[in-house]
Design a protein that fits this description.
about 45% helix; Rossmann fold; 6-stranded parallel β-sheet; alpha/beta
Length: about 260
């Protein structure tokens, strides 16, 4: 007799970083996952208008995730976040832990202020300096700061004919707004320490070790069920969910199975 897997599809919200929109950021990964997931690729709230809201903070992103989950009919769901979307996902886990089945983090841009090493503090000070640079200088410096020494930032792809997409002009102001939001936000680490759902962290081997590797070590001491997976050839601007979507999809399926009590694939 032919058997069928009657388990419901995982319900997942995917949060992008501060540069690419969600559909572009997660296109390769969602293509691999296919119909096996009920996915919402959600854009960041900071880009909902031409300029960031005057009162923008991580709470705005947290409430945006909650609204997206409610609109999709997700009572409890899996949350995947990269860079700025990863920072927003951590803040969501601290605010609404009861809504999450699992948390997947791909080099979140920020993970709280408690327990920072001097190296991490130096990185954040440099970020704040970079945010004061003219827009045509800011992005290059911002990228270089997040890479392992000696790693060259990826070349910008050739621009398609015609004017640049409207979303591109919003990015410098959005990144600066995120940096201000990080400075103002305080995570409830007690709630994160009590978060009993599995957490997966993707770490690029070519990313700045004084930033993302040290962050992963801090989070390992906070989340009770925390796993790091290293992608040796990847870095923050050449991330695994775009370059190695098959491997990331397999890791996410294992995470979701573990969260829902199913056998590992």
């Amino acid at each position: 007799m032919e058997s069928h897997d009657a388990r419901p599809r995982p319900q997942v919200i995917f949060m992008p970083g501060g540069v690419l929109p969600a559909d572009l950021a997660y296109g390769p990964l969602l293509g691999v996952l296919g119909d096996g997931v009920e996915a919402v690729a959600k854009d960041l709230e900071v880009y909902a208008s031409d300029v960031p809201p005057h009162d923008f903070g991580l709470g705005v992103e947290v409430e945006g995730i909650r609204r997206a989950a409610n609109a999709a009919g997700f009572e409890r769901f899996h949350l995947v976040g990269y860079s700025g979307g990863g920072a927003s996902s951590i803040a969501f886990a601290a605010t609404y832990p009861e809504r999450l089945l699992s948390l997947a983090l791909m080099e979140p841009a920020w993970a709280g202020w408690e327990g920072l090493t001097p190296e991490e503090e130096a990185v954040y000070r440099e970020f704040e300096r970079i945010m004061t640079l003219p827009p045509d200088e800011m992005m290059g410096a911002f990228m270089r700061e997040q890479l392992r020494p000696g790693v060259e930032p990826p070349a910008a792809p050739a621009a398609p004919p015609g004017p640049p997409p409207p979303w591109m002009a919003r990015r410098p102001a959005g990144l600066a707004a995120f940096m201000r939001a990080f400075r103002a936000h305080r995570l409830d680490l007690d709630r994160l320490r009590a978060f009993d759902r599995p957490v997966w962290f993707a770490l690029g081997g070519l990313s700045d070790p004084d930033y993302y590797a040290r962050m992963s070590e801090r989070l390992a001491g906070i989340f009770p069920r925390f796993t790091v997976e290293v992608f040796p050839e990847r870095h923050h601007f050449d991330p695994p969910h775009r370059r190695e979507p098959e491997r990331v999809a397999a890791a996410l399926r294992r995470l979701w199975n573990a969260a829902e009590g199913a056998p590992a694939a």
